[in-house]
Design brief:
Number of helices: 6
InterPro entries: 2-thiour_desulf (IPR007553)
Structural class: alpha/beta
Shape: globular
Bound molecules: iron/sulfur cluster
Distance between the termini: 20 Å
Helix content: 25-40%
Order of helices and strands: EHEHEHEHEEEHEH
Number of strands: 8
Largest sheet: 4 strands, parallel
Amino acid sequence: MILVSSCLAGMKVRYNGTDRLDERIHKLVEEKKAVMVCPELLGGFQTPRPPAEIIGGTGDDVLDGQAKVVDQFGCDVTDMYVSGAEETLKIARENGATTVILKENSPSCGSGFIYNGTFSGEKITGAGVTTALLRRHGIKVVSEDEFLA
Ligand code: SF4
């Protein structure tokens, strides 16, 4: 089984209430080859919610307590991001998922790039919190771009 970001399958769960529908990923879900997850909703957020970025590092640094996730109003939401990552790991295990396709650039789901914590649209190389946790447990995480390439 494959796990995919809910927003890539067409669910309007992004912070601003939109999706990032990719028909090929939606088809995987329809054919029951993939299960949808949204780590941020699993962590207790609702839609819409303020955008958040990792400050001071990457998802790995967050897991190591060396960086935090903060929303655009300065509220520390690190615990909810870590909780969402743990819940996603649980679902991956329950479904025997060895490959996960997550939305690039997200502070949860990014696998190659994330925003740099200044809310300026600038990106850095690195993974989001959920991706980092899944990889630490031997699960392959790719972005929609890599999967569809
Ligand atoms: Fe999509 Fe992941 Fe953000 Fe949820 S946490 S909206 S699945 S990018």
